[in-house]
Specification:
This protein has 104 residues and is an all-alpha fold. The chain has a single domain, classed as Glutathione S-transferase Yfyf (Class Pi), Chain A, domain 2. The chain is built from 4 helices and no strands.
C-alpha cells in the first residue's frame, strides 16, 4: 500500500518517487522470499488451499506492474497459474473487471 499511496507516507511531495522506488525494492525482496517458500509446495501452507492463498493471489496480482513482477519468479508463476484456474478466483475477477490472461 505504501507503493501505491506514497502521498500518505510523507508531507514532501517531492519524495513520492523515492518512496515508490524503495517500496518496489522491498516488495521484490518479499516476492523472492515467497517464491522460495513455495518451492516444494502447491499452496502457501502446503497441499491444501487456505484463505492465505486467496489473499496472496490478490497481493501478487497487484504487483504485476512492477519492474520485476511475480511472474518473473519460477515458483510464483506456477502458483499464480494454478490459482488463476480456480473457479472462485475467476468469478471474483469477473466481478472486479480484472483480467487473468497474463496467467494463461
Amino acid at each position: 500500500m505504501v507503493y501505491f499511496y506514497p502521498q500518505k507516507h510523507t508531507a514532501a511531495t517531492s519524495g513520492y518517487e523515492d518512496i515508490k522506488q524503495a517500496q518496489e525494492i522491498r516488495v521484490t525482496q518479499m516476492f523472492a522470499l515467497i517464491d522460495q517458500e513455495l518451492e516444494n509446495k502447491i499452496f502457501l501452507l502446503g497441499d491444501n488451499i487456505s484463505a492465505c492463498d486467496f489473499v496472496l493471489f490478490m497481493l501478487l496480482h497487484w504487483g504485476s506492474g512492477l519492474k520485476k513482477p511475480p511472474l518473473s519468479f519460477p515458483n510464483l508463476v506456477r502458483y499464480l497459474r494454478r490459482m488463476a484456474q480456480r473457479e472462485s478466483v475467476q468469478k471474483v475477477c469477473v466481478i472486479e473487471g480484472t483480467s487473468l490472461e497474463v496467467y494463461e
